[in-house]
Amino acid sequence: MCGIVGYIGHREAYPIIMKGLQRLEYRGYDSAGIALFDGNNIKLSKTKGKVVDLEDRVAKEINTEGSLGIGHTRWATHGVPNDVNSHPHYSNSGNLVIIHNGIIENYESLKKELTKRGYTFKSDTDTEVLINLIEDVKKNENTKLGKAVQIALNQVVGAYAIAVFDKNKPNEIVVARLGSPLAIGIGEDEFFIASDASPFIEYTKNAIYLEDEEMAIVRRNKGVKIRKIKDDSLVDPYIQELQINLEQIEKGGFDHFMLKEIYEQPSAIQDTFRGRMLPKDAIIKMAGVEDNMKTFLNADRIIVVACGTSWHAGLVSEYIFENLARIPVEVEYASEFRYRNPVITDKDVVIAISQSGETADTLAAIKLAKSKGAFVFGVCNVVGSSIARETDAGAYTHAGPEIGVASTKAFTTQITVLTLIALRLARAKGTITSTEFRHHMIELELIPEKVKKALESDDYVRSIAEIYKDASNFLYLGRGYNFPVALEGALKLKEISYIHAEGYPAAEMKHGPIALIDENMPIVVIATRKGHYDKVVSNIEEIKSRSGKIIGIVTEGDTTVKKLADHVIEVPESLELLSPLLTTIPLQLLSYHIAVMLDKNVDQPRNLAKSVTVE
Ligand code: G6P
C-alpha cells in the first residue's frame, strides 16, 4: 500500500520522481524518500511525512543530479512511520538500494538467517531484510543483480512490487511484482516505473503492466526484458496504449480531489453506461455478461464480495438484483467471507466490487471462490488491476482515476454498472417486461442531468454543514434502496471529518439508536417520495418527539417532511431503484464541507489509504 516511482533515461530523474510521488500519495503518505544516482554516487534522502516534507529534506541534504532514480511514498505495515523506516533502503554494503510496496511475510526467519551471517539492520522493515537477502545471494552466487533478485524472491513469501538498483550497474533498474501493481512506461530512450501510470502519463502513453510473478530488467537505451520469477522463462512484453490523460488526474480547479470527483459524477455515470445501453433499441450490451449469460441465468445465487464503499454499492445491488432479476443475493465483507469457510458451489456467481482492483481481502475472496468452482465477475474501476485480471470476466466502471481517499464517483458508477447487469439479466430471465426494461433505461439515461441538479444544493448543504460541524455524533437513516446510502453517508463523514456517525435502517432505529437522540443529535434521514415514504415519515415523527435535529433528504416538491424537519435538501424525482444515485450526492457534499470547515485533510484522511493491499 505504498507508491513507487522510478526513472532511467536522459532527463533529470529528480523532478519526474517527485511529481510522480505526489500523484501517488493517495496510496500512502506517512513517509517518503528518494534515491538518485549520478553515475558515481547514490544520493539518498528520506523522511517521515509527506512528499512536500521530502522536498525540504532533499534541499538540505543532497544534490539532485542524476538520470536514474527511485522514489517511494509509504503507508506503514512493518515498523512505525519514521525517517529510518522510510524507503529507499540500502543493503549493508551500500551498493544496492530498494523501494518496496507490499509485505514480506517470512521476513523474520530471513532476518534471523541473515543476522547469523553478519548482516545488521537499521530499520524495523521487512524491506531492508529483502535488500540484504538480495545482496547475500548476489555475493554467494556471484551473480548479476537481476539473477540475485530472482533467486531471492523465490525465497520470499508475501507480496511485493519492488525496484532495485546497484551502484556498480548504473544503467539498469530491476523491478518485480507479486500481488502489488507495477507499470513500466516506455518512452523514447527512457523508462518510467510506477505503481500506476499517473506519474508518467505526460511523458508516454505506452505502458507494460507486469503480471504477478514477473520481473523485468529495465536497461538504459536498451529496453525491457521480462522474465517469470519462478522458472526464468522469457515473457513477450505486451505494450498497452493508455487511455487516461493528465487533466483527468489533476485537480482541475477544485480545492480537493474529492470535490472534483463529486462533481465528475454526471459525466462518470454517463461514461459508465455510454455504449452499453441503447434505450431506443431496448438493448443493454456488456461483453462480460453476454459471454457468460448461461452461467448467470443458471446461477443459484449471486454472492457479492467487497470492502468499504464498494461493499455499500454491493448492498444497493442486492436490492436491485433481487427486485429486478429475482436472483437471491448475499453481500459479504470480503475479509469475513475469505476466513469463514463459506459454502460456495459451481452454481454460484460471485461478483467482486473494487474501485482500485487491488484490495487484498477482495482479491483473496475471489481466489477462494474460484478454487471452489464459482464463476467470478469483477466490477472494477482501475483497468488492468489485479482484481480485473484475476476474475473470469467483468465490467469496468469507467469512472476515471479516483484520487480522493473517500470514494465518491466510484460508488455511483459501481451502482450504475450493477444496475445495467441486473436489468440485462432481468430481461433475459423475463422477470421484467420489455416496457419496464425500456422505461428503466430511459430513467437511467436521465440520471446524469439529475445528478447535476442535485449538485446545485451545494451552497445550501454548506450552510447546513456550518450549523452541525461541531456535533460529536451523527445518525444516518434510510430504508430499502436508501439504507445502504445511509451507511455510505455515515462512512463518508467518519472517514474525512473524524466525527462519529452511524448508518441505520430507519425502522431499526427503535431498537437502539433512538436512545442516543436528544437536541444535540443531527439525524440525516433519507425520505424520498417512493421509498416507503409513509413509514419514514413516521420515523421522522419519532425523532422529532425526542428533539433530534432532522436533516431530510427529500424528493423535489416535498411538503410533508418539510413541515417536520429542521432542514430539507431536495433531489430530483426518479425511480426508487435509481434514487441512491441522487440521494448520495448531498451526503457526499455534507461530509466534504464539514471536513473542510474542521480543517481536516480531505483527500488524505489520517490512518486511511486509497488502496488497501494488505489484509
Ligand atoms: C479503502 C478506501 C475506501 C474503499 C475501500 C475498498 O478503505 O479508503 O474508500 O471503499 O478501501 O476499496 P476498493 O478499491 O476495493 O473499492
TrEMBL record:
Residues annotated as domain SIS: 292-431, 464-605
Cellular localisation: Cytoplasm
Molecular function as annotated in GO: glutamine-fructose-6-phosphate transaminase (isomerizing) activity
Ranges of residues in domain Glutamine amidotransferase type-2: 2-221
Catalytic reaction list: D-fructose 6-phosphate + L-glutamine = D-glucosamine 6-phosphate + L-glutamate
Transferase in keyword set: yes
EC id: 2.6.1.16
PROSITE patterns named among the record's database cross-references: GATASE_TYPE_2, SIS
Listed InterPro entries: GATase_2_dom (IPR017932), GFAT (IPR005855), GFAT_N (IPR047084), GlmS/AgaS_SIS (IPR035466), GlmS/FrlB_SIS (IPR035490), Ntn_hydrolases_N (IPR029055), SIS_dom (IPR001347), SIS_dom_sf (IPR046348)
The keyword NADP appears for this protein: no
Role of this protein: Catalyzes the first step in hexosamine metabolism, converting fructose-6P into glucosamine-6P using glutamine as a nitrogen source.
Subunit annotation: Homodimer.
Protein name: Glutamine--fructose-6-phosphate aminotransferase [isomerizing]
Species annotation: Microcosmobacter mediterraneus
Lineage, highest ranks first: Bacteria, Pseudomonadati, Bacteroidota, Flavobacteriia, Flavobacteriales
Gene field: glmS
